[in-house]
Please model this.
Amino acid sequence: MPELPEVETVVRELNKKLKGRLVKVVVVNSPKMVGVGPATLSPKRQIEVEKVKRFIGTIKGKEFVSVTRRAKLLIFNLSGSWSMLVHLKMTGQFIFEDAKLQERTQGFYRLLNKPHAPLVKMPSKHTHVVFKFTDGSVLYFNDVRKFGYMKLVHDKEMGQVRELQEFGPEPLNKNFTELCFFTAVKKHNRRQIKEILMDNKVVAGIGNIYSDEILFHARVRPNRKAVGIKNYELSNIYKYIKPVLLKGIQAKGSSVGDFVRTDGSVGQMGKYHFVYGKRGRKCKKCGTIIESIKVGGRTGSYCPSCQK
DNA sequence: TATATTGTTACACC
DNA sequence: TGGTGTAACAATAT
Model:
């Protein structure tokens, strides 16, 4: 489940690997996942031949200049004033294969973080878009659930991209101050704290995994309403946001579900999870059995002894 | 075959 | 108007 640290991992790896590469061939296997223009791709995305042609036509011959991120959205800056916005949603993956990796893997990858996951040959049945570069290297975009998307936007239309408008501050930036966090939380007095942490308008990029982990370290249960949270507890939550996310980036992400790095390897953050996905297991700190509850329709896990 | 999964948005209601 | 709560949606694995 790519959240900020997973997306950041992919951004850093791709930025390094794609910089300066020239697109020679684009293959679109799932037309519904691509778009051109700032508009939201509608749920009833039609299979439009023209749209696919424009997508391919626009990106062919362009150079990848840099890769950046806003919240969980990847932004590929292309030559000619175009950007490609990519959301991985639940199960999106990028695999970048150059001659060296091709030689090592022969094109086969174990793309699930399970001991007996089968080796998969790229492109697989879940590969929806392929970019081939002039030097022979290849970028694969995979998505088992097909919830993700890729959309090309001209820079002069970037202001009209809705999903970029309302994001709150980036938690790793200096402008994400304790005051700004307190103010944002107190606007949502009646909501549960886990929901608030996962609200991208309050703070960008935090999802189910990292909200659980942050709340564990801050010793606050996920279902507490904001109004009942003491200032020192809120202060603790703020205090742990940055280090937990940084730890995730340092470990190259959590390979929960389908997340893999751009060479197909798994992130190591799962080793450091205290509560996420640990229901029924013993708390690493106190041995109490981890419990889970529904918060805003999502599963939140917590230690009933460590978290109050 | 019913269910669970998550990020995001839509919508009704107060 | 805007906070709140709920549901819907995407598609697949199990």
Observations:
- Chain A has a mean pLDDT of 89.
- The helical segments of chain A are 4-18, 49-59, 99-105, 162-165, 178-186, 193-198, 208-217, 231-250.
- Chain A has two domains: 4-165, 178-302.
- Chain A is about 25% helix and 20% strand.
